[in-house]
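Weekly structure sync, notes
Attendees: PL (lead), two postdocs, one rotation student
Agenda item 3: pending single-chain targets
PL asked that the sequence for the first pending target be pasted directly into the notes so everyone works from the same version. It is reproduced below exactly as submitted, 684 residues in total.
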Amino acid sequence: RYIMNYIALLLSFITCALCSCMPKEKTASVNYDNFLNEYIDSTVSPGEDFFKFAMGKWLKNNPIPESERSWGIWTLVNEENYSRIRKINEEAAANTKAKKGSNEQKIGDFWFTGMDTVTIEKQGITPLKPELDKIAAISDPQGVIKMASYLHTMQVQPLFGNYIFQDEKNSNKFRLHFYQGGIGLPDRDYYFDKDERTVTIRNEYVKHISKMFQLTGIDAATADTYAQTIMKMETDFAGASRKLADLRDPYANYNSMAVADVNKLCPAINWESFLADAGIKNIDTIIVGQPEFFKQLNTSLTKESVDNWKIYLQWNLINAYADRLSSDFDKEHFHFYGTILNGTKEQRARWKRVLDAEEDAMGFLLGQLYVEAYYPPEEKARYEKIVENTMAAYKVRIQQLDWMSPETKEKALLKLSTVIKKVGYPDKWRDYSALTITRDSYVQNAINANKYLHAYEVEKLYKPVDKTEWEMTPQTWNAYYNPSNNEIVLPAAAFIVPGVPDKYVDDAIAYGYAAGSTIGHEITHGFDDQGSQFDEKGNLSEWWTPQDRAQFLERTKLIVEQFNNYIIIDTIHVNGDATQGENIADLGGMLIGLEAFKMTDQYKEGKVIGGYTPVQRYFLGFALSWYGKYRDEAMVLRAKTDVHSPNFLRVNGPASNIQEFYDAFGIKQGDKMYVEDSLRVKIW
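Predicted structure, written out during the meeting:
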């Protein structure tokens, strides 16, 4: 899955299948034993390329739709959920007598405004006019800073990123975190890499900014000047930003400072005033991720003119809300971020984009209705049992490690025993009573939702940590591990197999698909290169002996080297350093899921189903988690910005390190999948 570690999750906050050959849901009288044949390409040897063997038929028969940058299980699960959630929305919108402030009223009105393209076209950029007028009225540097603070309350983050989550060294406290940011391209390397693809993207970005300004009524020559100004200012920010791999060191990116010290670091901003304007008062500590970035921010604020900052703020505001504005802004925004960056040929259906926006605005409100309609108790109970078996298997794996001392093993087992397990949906639902949604304006509804979310997060600074809270909605095909809570969070939608009712998914498939690729994966995040630095209470603290830590690092070096050698496309390699946490988790998950599957009756019986043994079906179930493909442009983007390896390597990479895989499929020396035993990665 696009499994995100907790910090990455917070920094980023982690369609009917018309051309899928996966059969529609069958009746109960139909045998599901052979459904894997819809995916398997028997013309490919498992030893040559296991992913293409396991999923090759699907890959051949399912081109990426023009409206998508990728197509695979992640989109097909979403297709099922889109249809379900659309029904909820249409029914809510049809009820014009819903009580004001009710869940039904908010869902129905948000949907109505998002689909009301006549009003959206008529309004154009008008919904942003109050904020644009405020920017135009700025006359001094303090006005720039005050406006930047206000934009942060709208989830626009000019200058830098600020986020509220738990103190990495004291998980009982929420802290404000400052992080590098202020740029419109996906990563700092886009401003400096000299390969042809990246140079083209930079040039197109400048053109895109100019076109967006022209849509506001500015003449082309002035808009071109504005675009060059933005590019220069963002390049300065990018130059002071850390690379993707360097952001993975939790100690290096943890710098706890008194507010007075942040004032010294970046004196161009009065931080008490900046925070107060954003509704944040009476805090004494800020955790600064990258202090050198804030030195550059101070330099930029000092040297750039007020007029340049006004241009910059306008751009940040328009860029943040472009896809909610009239079609001219929306289409130009898609042209750059969809087509140029990701290679997507056409926009997705509007109704899907509105549902995505609604998910961002009030996902847990939707989730409550989704669970009531589509998540039966027996399904939740099944996966809670699989979670328990996976935890038991992990315990055995730790106990049997031959490279870890008894002292560290004891602490590892303590951490494992205290993992909080959240399955399906929250025990209590988020309160959206403070959120106002009307039928007046789609953009205004988005602004209201963003202000609500900002205020919701700020409140956490003044409350005890609520360890029952979820950061991912039940209808999300994803999962996460949060090191600060030492918890795994597994939404209801995480275990959907498209086209196959859960009761027909046999344990071999379920353990590969769920226990291996997700549950075991998430638990392993507690013991990867980042998560292993947090103790059982969720605090950044070294609980390993020096000798064991050294052993662990030697083993992780091997997985870094292994993935550095994999080629994604053309001459572009996997970034083994940046992806090592996810690669460790994929390997750990595949191993632990298999150990958990060995506890089941299906494994013990050894019965062949659909022509495959239980262990073969386990590995095929793991591969089922990752079937799909990306456009070349999207693959290159992910190589630069994503801490996950490409999906085909999330199957082939870990499998090549596991002896049971070799035994199950007869992998032998000389096969492309074969890795010498001395080079196989053995961690957990």
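Discussion points:
- The mean pLDDT is 94.
- The longest helix spans residues 350-374.
Action: rotation student to compare against the earlier draft before next sync.
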